[in-house]
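Below is one protein, fold included:
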Amino acid sequence: MRKGRSNRNSQEMLPEYDFSCGVCGKYAGRFTKDTIMVVLDPDVAAIFPDRKSVNTALWALGHVVRDRQRASARRRATG
């Protein structure tokens, strides 16, 4: 048998929280349709303080991966 919903959420909401003027989707326009959101583990996020540092690291890694793929393709073509 299924239990009814608890009032836990209503008990946790403090009276000083006022969302009556909240706007749904206020920041949604910041993201383009090509944006990909990724959640970093806290230890990884500590290394990369902002999106620029994350993108720089991924670009560098991307160059390494691309160069390895090209070298591997050359070896297959000649071998």
Observations:
- Residues 40-79 form one domain.
- Residues 27 and 71 are 43 Å apart (CA to CA).
